[in-house]
Design a protein that fits this description.
The protein is α+β, with helices and mostly antiparallel strands and 428 residues long. The chain contains 17 helices and nine strands.
């Protein structure tokens, strides 16, 4: 048993609180369990209790054993001077205030039903994947849908942290931040950070000025990442190299930034050269791309907006100085889906929040038009009986796995709480 279970029991009053007594026989009535702080100091702040007809307002500290008070050195910590009740699973020693009066103690194990304890133990015993893998399919749709909506919002809030940080760095230039996120999305997991740093290293005013010519954008991107430093016979390579040297001098740009670009393990269509060429073409063709994305709430319209190809050279090249069979290298529908999920939706959410608005329903509707992501996590949820029909559902499941299942936070999860409270779990 862990203390977080006792926090859960106290916070949601999952015990017989109508006939509650301290270990020394004082009757206790709970007016307010207090605010669950989840940070340094007592566990619950500003609780209100009546102990033997005397009303108390103060903090509540919770431990597995009373002696943990001394194990954690609370007796020397001023933050614990205002504790009015010590809630424990097992009472093994008295705890005293500085005036030598004992802090009242409630021994919870006398008041919690065996069923809830059993459910907690059965849920948290090690499983092959996640704690509720055998029971999650029993959760009704109403609870699951509400929980998925909360998870989706949490995921967007987490992504907003990076966006707000970029806003500070760019002095609230939303267009610049948008293009940073866009570049990161084009880089995928392998080159995402490198592409992000590339875009951060080029003032957006320069990007805007040079966007009239896609070759200038390619020169900036390839040159800044050190991809034009070799000596090659390729005419287009040398044209870009010459243009990069000119632009670097014109704008006082360093010759390169210290980023490592990875080709390894990528299919040719995902080579960083191709993705940079597509990104350059997209920026070249759409001078107000951020505003267009803000105003668009249809996946179909976004597919049309991002329907771009590479410049002519890349039709028959994947890397410099080596021809390949001609191929149209436009953005695929699946790749645009990733851009929508990782760039457009988060920045639309953050932009609305920063302007005092909410657009959750609009964003849920948007991502619900996108097919579910396909990966090992979504596959395992499917095996557990939870199907993901669209990206709203898959994004929520990924958030739950990452932030709750991976850390055994069943007591903070709507599904875990439901199973502990109401379901008799079998021990598999």
């Amino acid at each position: 048993m862990k203390e977080d279970f006792l926090h859960f029991v106290w916070q949601y009053k999952k015990f017989n609180f109508t006939n509650l007594y301290s270990v020394d026989g004082k009757q206790i009535s709970i007016v307010n369990t207090g605010q669950y702080l989840q940070k340094a100091g007592p566990d619950f702040f500003n609780a209100q209790l009546i102990i033997d007809d005397q009303k108390w307002a103060g903090n509540v500290e919770i431990h597995l054993k009373s002696s943990d008070w001394y194990v954690h050195n609370h007796e020397t910590d001023l933050n614990y001077d205002n504790v009015v009740l010590h809630v424990v699973w097992e009472h093994d020693t008295d705890v005293f205030r500085k005036n030598n009066t004992a802090i009242p103690v409630v021994e919870l194990k006398k008041y919690v039903s065996p069923e809830i304890v059993d459910n907690y133990h059965n849920l948290t015993i090690p499983k092959s994947w996640i704690n509720c893998e055998n029971e999650i399919k029993t959760i009704d749709d109403f609870i699951m849908n509400n929980w998925q909506e909360r998870l989706f919002i949490e995921r967007l809030q987490n992504k907003s942290l990076e966006i707000n940080h970029l806003l500070l760095e760019s002095t609230n230039d939303w267009e610049a931040v948008f293009h940073c996120l866009l570049a990161k999305s084009f880089g995928l997991n392998t080159n995402g950070i490198s592409f992000l740093n590339l875009m951060k290293s080029i003032p957006f005013s320069i990007l805007r000025k040079e966007s009239y010519d896609v070759k200038n954008l390619e020169a900036l991107f390839f040159g800044r990442l050190g991809l034009l430093e070799d000596n090659k016979e390729d005419l287009y390579f040398n044209d870009l190299k010459k243009q990069w040297n000119y632009l670097a001098h014109k704008y006082s740009l360093e010759q390169k930034i210290p980023e490592s670009i990875q080709f390894f393990k990528h299919r040719p269509d995902n080579f960083p050269t191709i993705r940079l060429a597509q990104l350059a073409q997209l920026i070249h063709l759409n001078k107000q791309l951020f505003q267009k994305c803000l105003q668009t709430n249809s996946v179909k319209e976004l597919y049309s907006l991002f329907n771009v190809n590479t410049s002519y050279y890349w039709k028959n090249h994947y890397i410099f100085d080596r021809e390949s069979p001609p191929k149209n290298k436009s953005l695929s529908k699946n790749f645009i889906d990733l851009i929508i999920l990782n760039c457009i939706v988060p920045i639309k959410f953050c932009y609305a929040m920063n302007n005092g608005n909410t657009n959750i329903e609009e964003l849920i509707s948007l991502v619900s038009e996108i097919a579910s992501e396909k990966n090992s996590i979504i596959d395992k949820f499917k095996k557990a009986g939870i199907n993901s029909g669209n990206s709203f559902q898959s994004q929520a499941l990924l958030q739950m796995k990452k932030e709750y299942c991976n850390y055994n936070k069943c007591l903070n999860c709507e599904i875990g709480q439901k199973l502990i409270n109401f379901t008799s779990l079998k021990n598999y």
